[in-house]
Specification:
Blueprint: E1 5-18, H1 22-37, H2 39-44, E2 56-69, E3 73-77, H3 84-92, E4 99-104, E5 108-111, H4 124-134, H5 139-153, H6 168-179, E6 186-190, H7 198-212, E7 216-220, H8 224-230, E8 233-238, E9 241-247, H9 248-263, E10 271-272, E11 288-289, E12 310-311, E13 316-325, E14 329-330, E15 333-335, E16 339-348, E17 355-362, E18 368-373, H10 375-378, E19 390-398, E20 401-402, E21 405-416, E22 421-436, E23 445-446
Parallel strand pairs: 3-7, 3-8, 5-6, 6-7, 15-22
Antiparallel strand pairs: 1-2, 1-4, 8-9, 10-12, 11-14, 12-22, 13-16, 16-19, 17-18, 17-21, 20-23, 21-22
Helix pairs in contact: 4-5, 4-6, 5-6
């Protein structure tokens, strides 16, 4: 195995036997052996030696092949039942593949089902030694790290109580604390960080950030924001096969499009993924004059770039959008905190009731910064659109003082209500703008302060 490769998966498949009844399981255990005993007689009368199987095979994974480099963090996404947990267990070695092979270089620590390896009758301290030994630590190494493990877990006097008296959050704290101190080379995380209070989640993510500097991580989760934020690449599993493998932002956005389409009962053909030949973000900072009454001037409203994927029923289409400053001039460089207007146009190919138009702004990683739409403003006076008619939405707002950089604007048209609606056309990254904020160095955005005071107070002498 190449020294630069931490995990190599080649032709990996996993099948489970599904028995209709317990009796069939017993038959499968006995009948093949019996028929092999009487094999000469069966051959003499022209009967097959092997009986038909009493089970059906369910392939949880089929022909997976990929590599993870040392120091890389790769996300694994997919719907429930897609094979994510099976893949992680095969990589950990707790399951045996039906076909193919997995090679892992270095010590593996897994956060699959936190606390599942604990003996509920043992005290917490005893389970620390038990779990650490399973993860490869000697008793002496565990003793040396015990104080640090207990400090990380922070469960106080409960460490000397049976684990069966713990809450799920306390068991999770203890399990994570052990894993954080085993000096693993490869960390496998399966939804584990979604449990626990906010304080402990922050502690876990800080530790995970530090681990990423020296180790390899496989991160399985349903939160696209966490996958995009933590991972450089992602693998989308769908019914046991790799549907897509690539940059985390690209894969998670594609996955989100297909999930949204499926939720609304739309076929996969309703989704169009982004391609490498997508239009480039605007590079010019020049401003173009836009007529005041440009609702009927098609040439003034730029067609959407469609740098990202699109999906929808096809009953309406986004035909253009433009971002202007307060004076109505088109802009591609936006000062943070300034007033802007986003105008979106769409054309309906069928009659639509209660039309909703909206937009979202995402950062360069694909994380959604803010979203809004027309529903609340028109909930008491819905707007209907006839077949062949166009509709225009105008959003005026003050752009947040975001960290300077490129931001993508996605736009959509739907019909229905906020809770129940059908998306007809959703264009991700329809427009890319540069937000420039001079007075923010770190963080996500700058908050305007109404007043700032700095006062030196003399120390008061003790009374009495």
């Amino acid at each position: 195995m190449c020294s630069d490769i931490s995990i190599r998966v080649e032709g990996l498949s996993k099948a489970y036997r599904i028995y209709p009844t317990p009796t069939d399981r017993l038959r499968q255990a006995i009948m093949p052996r019996l028929r092999r005993i009487v094999a000469p007689l069966l051959r003499a009368i022209g009967r097959p030696v092997e009986p038909p199987p009493y089970f059906t095979e369910f392939w949880a994974l089929r022909e997976l092949s990929f590599e993870v480099a040392k120091g890389e963090t790769v996300g694994i996404i997919g719907r429930n039942g897609s094979g994510k947990s099976t893949l992680l267990q095969l990589i950990c070695g707790t399951l045996t593949p039906s076909q193919g092979q997995v090679s892992v270089q270095g010590r593996v620590a897994a956060l699959l089902e936190l606390g599942s390896g604990f003996n509920p009758e043992y005290w917490g301290r005893e389970n620390v030694f038990l779990n650490a030994s399973v993860l490869g630590l000697t008793r002496e190494e565990t003793v040396d790290r015990l104080d640090a493990i207990l400090a990380f877990a922070d469960i106080g006097e409960f460490i000397d109580q049976p684990v069966k008296t713990y809450s799920s959050g306390m068991a999770m704290r203890l399990a994570f604390a052990v894993v954080a101190h085993v000096d693993a080379d490869v960390l496998i995380v399966d939804e584990a960080l979604a449990v626990g209070d906010a304080y402990f989640q922050q502690k876990c993510f800080r530790w995970l950030r530090e681990f990423q500097k020296r180790g390899t991580v496989l991160f399985c989760g349903h939160d696209p924001g966490a996958v995009i934020n933590l991972c450089s690449r992602a693998i989308w599993l769908d019914r046991g096969v790799v549907r897509m493998l690539g940059p985390a932002k690209q894969v998670t956005e594609a996955y989100g499009l297909f999930v949204h389409a499926a939720t609304m009962g739309l076929p996969d053909t309703a989704v169009t993924l982004a391609t490498d030949t997508a239009a480039e973000p605007p590079s010019s900072t020049a401003e173009a004059e836009i007529p005041a009454d440009f609702a009927v001037v098609d040439e003034a409203i730029l067609p959407p770039q469609q740098g990202g994927g699109v999906f929808g029923s096809g009953l309406a289409e986004i035909t253009g959008l433009v971002l202007t400053d307060a004076a109505g001039r088109r802009i591609v460089v936006v000062p943070g905190g300034s007033e802007v207007a986003l105008i979106v146009r769409a054309r309906a190919s069928a009659a639509l009731s209660s039309v909703i138009m909206g937009f979202q702004v995402k950062d360069r990683l694909g994380q959604v910064i803010f979203v809004d739409n027309t529903y609340r403003s028109f909930a008491d006076r819905p707007v209907d659109v006839g077949a062949g008619e166009s509709v225009r939405a105008e959003f005026r707002f003050r752009i947040p003082a975001l960290l300077s950089g490129e931001y993508a604007v996605g736009v959509a048209i739907a019909s229905g209500t906020q809770a129940e609606h059908m998306v007809h056309h959703f264009v991700h990254e329809a427009l890319v703008v540069h937000i420039q904020t001079a007075d923010i160095l770190i963080g996500v955005l700058a908050v305007p302060l109404d007043d700032v005071k700095l006062t030196v107070e003399a120390e008061q002498p003790p009374s009495g």
